[in-house]
Amino acid sequence: MARIIKNDEIIESNLTVASGDDIDIAQDNQLLPLTVYLANREALAGSNNYGVWLDSDEEVELLEGKIDCNVIGLNFPAFNDGRAYSSADILRRKLSYKGEIRAIGDVRRDQLEQMIRCGFDAFELAPGQDLEESLASLQGFSENYQVTTDKPEPLFKRR
Q1: Is the predicted pLDDT of residue 144 greater than 60, yes or no?
Q2: Is the separation of the CB atoms in 103 and 129 below 8 Å?
Q3: CB–CB of 67/95 below 8 Å?
Q4: Number of folded domains in the chain?
Q5: What is the 8-class DSSP label of residue 64?
Q6: Domain with 60 in it: what CATH number?
Q7: In sequence order, what are the residues at sequence separation of 6 or more whose Cβ sits closer than 8 angstroms to the Cβ of residue 97?
Q8: Global pTM value
Q9: Alpha-carbon distance 76 to 73, whole Å?
Q10: Beta bridge partners of residue 102, listed in sequence order
Q11: Phi, psi of 3 (to 5 degrees)
Q12: Among 1, 2, 6, 30, CA closest to 112
């Protein structure tokens, strides 16, 4: 089980990121690659112990009208690859996704605040990242000026 940050606390997650050519969709508690998920939606119907994950070069719009899971993982193959920020924003704003959006891959403490602003609410940090320090770092900013997915009005309208 992986320890993740979710909703301002550290929890144990039983979901594992599935990859490779020999994925068994009958196995519980997996984040399935987008292509596997889309190809097996009928077989997965009615089950709630799986999720889907997208790599940074995959278009999240492919999920429009096809989201049947409670967790979507967005991969950061490198900490400086920011394409998943846009994918999270599209999921929240355009596709109105209300479930968990989990950052996976090379996720680091310094990114968490911006990830929250784009719609992420769960974080599986890269190896070597301190979960407690990362969680504590989220207390550093109480306000943001910009319109974001978690605060849809700018600061001047909230005053």
Answers
A1: no
A2: no
A3: yes
A4: 1
A5: T
A6: 3.40.50
A7: 67, 72, 91
A8: 0.86
A9: 10
A10: 73, 122
A11: -95, 130
A12: 6
Measure the CA–CA gap between 131 and 100, rounded to whole angstroms. 19
In the DSSP assignment, the letter for residue 61 is G
DSSP string, 87-150: HHHHHHHTS---SEEEEEES--GGGHHHHHHHT--EE-PPTT--HHHHHHHTTS-S--SS--SS
Give the pLDDT band of residue 157 (cuts 50, 70, 90).
low
Structure confidence at residue 39 (pLDDT): 93
**Banded pLDDT at 49 (limits 50, 70, 90):** confident
Q: Which two tokens stand for residue 29?
A: 């508690």
Neighbours of 153 (CB within 10 A): 10
Find, among 97, 53, 96, the residue nearest to 74 by Cα: 53
Tell me which residue range forms the domain holding 31. Answer: 2-158
